[in-house]
């Protein structure tokens, strides 16, 4: 099978993040084949989830990633198979077409990032973070990050917390370690030009330029962290394009 990228590759010079509102999962599932597209193992995981909202988000994330991946490769949505890394990071199994993806789901939003020839992580949280979340700051941020957080105006602190959190989690999800890596072991700092940079002693110096981290605002309610690692340093950062599952993936559902 020819597993190279299609001629007009939408991912040649962009990363795409697909958004699905949780309230749209049912009609998305209806239009795309629903749980029938899942493997037996995925269906078993889905059925084990106790809360309807968790089941809905799990199903939405599975269906969204399958539909999205099929846009960039000649593979039917139900044919994708996934393996998990040491810390549980899902990756495309077999002929991956150079694709890497990552998903996140939170109350109200499911998002999937897709890149080709790079590695990506994504995380979404409601913003601003609740005041109660501040108690976790000393555990998840470095002393310097905590100081920066504390110096935010009070009304901004919840947004600053959410931004820092999603940037750090997106980074650990791209590395595949997730929360198995202590979040206070590395930091994300804002640069003078407004961009973000990861400061992590564990990244070899030669690889530091390969990383890009950013936080996007979604629908006024969510902070979306994106981390992308390039394979070669000469490729530079990738623009990140936000796309809506409805209507961009399923225009007929949007019209109905
Ligand atoms: C990955 C992790 C950071 C996600 O946290 P979260 O904020 O609850 O969830 P998100 O919605 O952002 O992401 C969940 C998705 O990330 C993906 N994911 C799972 N493990 C991952 C990992 N190690 N790296 C990257 N992505 C991962 C999965 O697709 C998962 O979706 P699913 O739960 O529907 O299977 C967290 O679950 C984690 O650290 N897992 C590693 C394994 C673990 O729990 N170890 C215990 C400590 S060592």
Tell me the CATH superfamily.
4'-phosphopantetheinyl transferase domain
Overall number of domains: 1
What is the number of beta strands? 11
Q: What would CATH call the class?
A: Alpha Beta
Explain what you see.
- Strand 4 (99-106) and strand 5 form a beta hairpin.
- The longest helix has 22 residues, at 154-175.
- Strands 4-5-1-11 form a 4-stranded mixed β-sheet. A 3-stranded antiparallel β-sheet has the order 6-10-9. It has a two-stranded antiparallel ribbon with strand order 2-3.
- It contains 8 helices and 11 strands.
- The chain has a single domain (15-255), classed as 4'-phosphopantetheinyl transferase domain (Ribosomal Protein L22, Chain A), CATH 3.90.470.
- The protein is an alpha+beta fold.
- Bound molecules: coenzyme A (COA).
- Residues 58, 61, 87-90, 102-105, 121, 123, 169, 173, 176-180 line the site of coenzyme A.
Produce the secondary structure layout.
Blueprint: E1 15-21, H1 25-32, H2 40-48, H3 52-71, E2 82-84, E3 90-92, E4 99-106, E5 109-116, E6 118-126, H4 137-140, H5 143-150, H6 154-175, E7 187-190, E8 196-199, E9 211-218, E10 222-230, E11 240-244, H7 245-249, H8 251-255
Parallel strand pairs: 1-11
Antiparallel strand pairs: 1-5, 2-3, 4-5, 6-10, 7-8, 9-10
Helix pairs in contact: 1-3
The structure holds coenzyme A (COA).
